[in-house]
Amino acid sequence: MSDLVKLERILGIKIGDEAVYREALTHKSFAAEHQLSYDNQRLELLGDAVVQIILTDYLYKRYTDLQEGDLTKIRSAMVNQDALAQFARDISLGSFLMLGRGELELHGQDRDSTISDAFESLLGAVYLDQGIEAATKIFLPILLKNYPDPAECLNEINPKGILQEYTQQKAQGVPQYRVVSVTGPAHAPQYEVEVLIRDKVVARGTACSHKLAEREAARAAVRILLHGEKKTVPGEKKE
Questions:
Q1: Which of 57, 101, 106, 183 is buried most, with the most CB atoms less than 10 Å from its CB?
Q2: Which of 164, 146, 143 is nearest to 215 (CA)?
């Protein structure tokens, strides 16, 4: 019960139907261990639709000059696993999840796939309990805190794809990614990855997962190669 009180304070609401929030916070691993008849997967489906309609309405009204294609790209970038996991971490959602022992041992409370699904489940619960307006008041501030101008992501939605397209146009082959180091505790590692073109290191990126670090490295390389930004790669001698 105390956890729901904390969640109320974070979300800025007064919870009505406590059962629907318990369902939203119940991972399938916990449900299986305790033989529960519910978990948060059904609410995840509903929450996905809730997030989509809130975001679509917001983007439609804010960016009146953008066409369907660009609006769709922005929306996709804002509801992918990485973004949703970021939103979940913004409200410390992982600390509220009920996980099975195995999932806890694997630090599921901070795994992108687990917490991104839980974020959608939570929005589904808010929608059922308090309606679309309450869900909107919760979601939009979190969105705008992390992405003040969502349209900016059009320039960096897929940096790895942009970089590969560039290198192929220049007949430079396919970019290669290599892990330089992994630091930090097992439950919160920091990956440093470098991107190479024709065996030459172009840029590096650091993030909490291998995939995200590759993306950051590609983003840095795009800025250098396509936009002329000067950047010194760590460990590389200046000319």
A1: 106
A2: 164
